[in-house]
Design brief:
The complex is a heterodimer of chains A (about 110) and B (about 110). With about 110 residues, chain A is an all-beta fold. Chain A contains no helices and 11 strands. Classes of the chains: A mainly beta (about 110), B mainly beta (about 110).
Chain lengths: ~110, ~110
C-alpha cells in the first residue's frame, strides 16, 4: 500500500478563495482523521470519520471549514472563504480501528493564504 | 478535556548522550499513550505505543514509560545519534478509544 496520500503538497492561495484539500486513506482503514498543525497550537484534531460518517467535528474552527467523505477511499477538507490565519500544515491520517493502533499519517498539505 | 504537555519545546545534546523526553497529560483515564516522530516536512510516524495496563515499551534504543497515576510518560533514547534529530510528539488516546490528543512536541537536535 502506498500509505495515506494527500494532495496537493503545497497550496498558495489568495484570501477569500476556496481551497480544497484531498486525502486517500489506506485501503481497509475504517477511520479517517483531519488535523491542522501550527507553531502556535501544535497538532489539532479537526474532524474524524468512521466508515465514511463524520463522528466528531467539534474541532472544526468555523463554518468556513467543511469536510466530506463520499466513499471509503476519498475525503476532502474545504475552506471557503480562506483567510491568512488558516495558513498551516493540514494532515490526514487513517487507522483500521480505534485505540490509535495502526495510525498512519499522510505527508501533509502546506497551505499558505496571502 | 484531555490536555497533553511536552517540556522542553526544544533540546540540543551532543552525539552519544542518553536523554529523556517528558510528556504529561491531565486525564489519567487514558486508553493508551503513543510516541511519534516527525521529520521536517513529513507526517508523523508511530514509534512506541503503551497500553494503559503497561508500564513501559521498548524498541531498539528507545524506551517509553507510563505512569498513569502521576499523568506522566517519558521517552528514553540511548546513545543518541544525529539521525535521531527530529520532533517527538506524545499522544494520549482517551478512554473512549476514539480520539488521539497530541502534545506540541519536543524538537530534538543531536550535535555530531
Amino acid at each position: 500500500d502506498a500509505g495515506v496520500i494527500q494532495s496537493p503538497r503545497h497550496e498558495v492561495t489568495e484570501m477569500g478563495q476556496e481551497v480544497t484539500l484531498r486525502c486517500k486513506p489506506i485501503s481497509g482503514h475504517d477511520y479517517l482523521f483531519w488535523y491542522r498543525q501550527t507553531m502556535m497550537r501544535g497538532l489539532e484534531l479537526l474532524i474524524y470519520f468512521n466508515n465514511n460518517v463524520p463522528i466528531d467535528d467539534s474541532g472544526m474552527p468555523e463554518d468556513r471549514f467543511s469536510a466530506k467523505m463520499p466513499n471509503a477511499s476519498f475525503s476532502t477538507l474545504k475552506i471557503q472563504p480562506s483567510e491568512p490565519r488558516d495558513s498551516a500544515v493540514y494532515f490526514c491520517a487513517s487507522s483500521p480501528g480505534t485505540g490509535g493502533y495502526g495510525y498512519t499519517f499522510g505527508s501533509g498539505t502546506r497551505l499558505t493564504v496571502v | 478535556k484531555q490536555e497533553v504537555t511536552q517540556i522542553p519545546a526544544a533540546l540540543s545534546v551532543p552525539e552519544g548522550e542518553n536523554l529523556v523526553l517528558n510528556c504529561s497529560f491531565t486525564d489519567s483515564a487514558i486508553y493508551n499513550l503513543q510516541w511519534f516522530r516527525q521529520d521536517p516536512g513529513k507526517g508523523l510516524t508511530s514509534l512506541l505505543l503503551i497500553q494503559s495496563s503497561q508500564r513501559e515499551q521498548t524498541s531498539g534504543r528507545l524506551n517509553a514509560s507510563l505512569d498513569k497515576s502521576s499523568g506522566r510518560s517519558t521517552l528514553y533514547i540511548a546513545a543518541s545519534q544525529p539521525g535521531d534529530s527530529a520532533t517527538y510528539l506524545c499522544a494520549a488516546v482517551g478512554s473512549s478509544a476514539s480520539k488521539i490528543i497530541f502534545g506540541s512536541g519536543t524538537r530534538l537536535s543531536i550535535r555530531p
